[in-house]
Design a protein that fits this description.
Keywords: Lipoprotein, Signal. The protein is α/β, with parallel strands linked by helices. It has twelve helices and eight strands. It has one domain (about 30-265): Rossmann fold (3-Layer(aba) Sandwich), CATH 3.40.50.1000. β4 and β5 form a beta hairpin. The structure holds magnesium ion.
Length: about 280
């Protein structure tokens, strides 16, 4: 009996020790979190549906542009990343790495100038200019030389090489202060332009009404403005990142959350059918 309890104690210690080391090995890392993006990235890069949706957005934008018969100075406002260019290789590069987005890696990607055009974007933006309009690029790529972060030159070179029109000082509106875009949209109307339509992959690309950072607030704003989508606001699909993701993490200082917390929030905010009741 004594021997049995001794060996049971020994067994319990072995189990306790091995489960401790098992727990250490199983710590959830940023690499694990990055892995969760594989399917979204595969869809963006490999599905013909993604290409079709991009054509759909720019075809609709052309219809909408042609419908506008008002006289005077007219413009469209477009976001850049994941709206007119595809940066998915940047996120693809994070797969199997144990780090996430950073200013330094983003700068390296921007300076590589290898982003490709979203299908239909170059033709539509040139069409706007050929038919008398202006194109304003309102992007949160930073032009903040004081912070050693100025992506203006590399972004402009990338866009010019792809054949985008009006890539110049007047039309390129990078982020020099706040990430909020209303001031820059106001400066377009302030120059006497009527903004016929706006294009973006992020709701905040369209209106101040979408600057909220909670899932509930963002959903409500979409319901309030539902008639504007496909009309003045034209959305491009981005399942890789965006303000929607920050909202899943609860908004606020979401970026301070750990990889594990983020992964758990991704799962806990899903609607789930219970197979076993
Ligand atoms: Mg964007």
């Amino acid at each position: 009996m004594k021997n049995l309890s001794k060996s049971l104690l020994g067994l319990a210690m072995v189990v306790a020790l091995s489960s401790t080391s098992f727990a250490a090995e199983k710590q959830f890392t940023t690499k694990d979190l990055n892995e969760e993006s594989v399917l979204a990235l595969s869809w963006v890069q490999n599905s013909a549906e993604f290409t079709a949706l991009s054509y759909q957005a720019f075809n609709l934008a052309k219809l909408r542009w042609d419908m506008d018969k008002q006289e005077g100075k007219k413009a469209i406002v477009v976001d850049v990343d994941e709206t007119i260019i595809d940066n998915s290789p940047y996120n693809g590069g994070l797969i199997d790495k144990d780090y996430g987005y950073s200013g330094d890696t983003w700068k390296a990607w921007s300076e590589d100038k290898s982003a490709t055009a979203m299908p239909g974007a170059v033709d539509f933006l040139n069409y706007v200019v050929e038919t008398g309009g202006d194109v304003f690029y309102v992007t949160n790529r930073k032009s903040m030389p004081e912070k050693n972060m100025d992506l203006k030159q590399s972004t402009m070179e990338n866009l010019k090489a792809l054949g985008f029109p009006q890539v110049d000082e007047k039309h390129m509106m990078l982020r020099t202060g706040t990430s909020k875009k209303q001031e820059r949209r106001d400066s377009v109307t302030g120059m006497g332009y009527k903004i016929v339509l706006l294009m973006g992959d992020n709701l905040a690309d369209f209106d101040v009404a979408f600057d909220g950072d909670t899932m509930e607030g963002r959903s409500k704003a979409v319901e309030t403005h539902k008639m504007s989508f496909g009309d003045k606001f034209i959305v491009l699909p981005n399942p890789i990142y965006g303000a929607w993701e920050a909202a899943v993490y609860g908004g606020g200082e979401w970026y301070k959350k750990s990889a594990q917390e983020k992964s758990e929030l991704r799962k806990s905010t899903l609607r789930k059918f219970e197979f076993e009741k």
